[in-house]
UniProtKB/TrEMBL annotation:
Organism of this sequence: Enhydrobacter aerosaccus
Keyword ATP-binding attributed: no
CDD domains per record: YjgF_YER057c_UK114_family
Keywords for this protein: Hydrolase
Protein family according to the UniProt entry: Belongs to the RutC family.
Keyword Magnesium: no
Protein name: Aminoacrylate peracid reductase
TM segment ranges: none
Gene Ontology molecular function: any one: deaminase activity
Length: 130
């Protein structure tokens, strides 16, 4: 089945040539998401918790645009710039996944925008297309 881009209404410009999400055969792949406004500027500079909330709201928007919910998320890849922010990220993350938790990993690394503290990429199974 061909890939269908998933672009929520009001999506701002991206930093590179990609779609916020892509769906194929009922699986939504959400691109690595940073806390960026519509002009690709980092928001909530210095606050990992607020950035995590912003990122998860963006991911939620992509999944809902594809016809799913956060309960359909099966896997998250989490990238943080400093382990000191791990607890803040997890505190917000737990609010978005209160029941059964999706599989995930978390690594410390550099991100494409120096003010960004967290990036999350997601996979969700929302059902068959068509």
């Amino acid at each position: 089945m061909p890939m269908v881009p998933v672009i929520p209404a009001g999506t701002g410009k991206t930093l590179a040539p990609y779609s916020p999400g892509a769906m194929a055969d009922g699986v939504v792949y959400v691109a690595g998401t940073l806390a960026l406004d519509k002009e690709a500027n980092v928001v909530h500079v210095g606050d990992a918790g607020k950035q995590t909330e912003f990122v998860l709201e963006q991911i939620k928007s992509v999944i809902e645009t594809a016809g799913g919910t956060m309960a359909d998320v099966t896997f998250n890849s989490i990238f943080i710039t400093d382990w000191a922010n791990y607890a803040a990220v997890n505190a917000v993350y737990a609010k978005y996944f209160p029941g059964d938790k999706p599989a995930r990993f978390c690594i410390q690394c550099g991100l494409v925008k120096k003010e960004a503290l967290v990036e999350i990429a997601t996979i969700a199974h929302v059902g068959k297309q068509g």
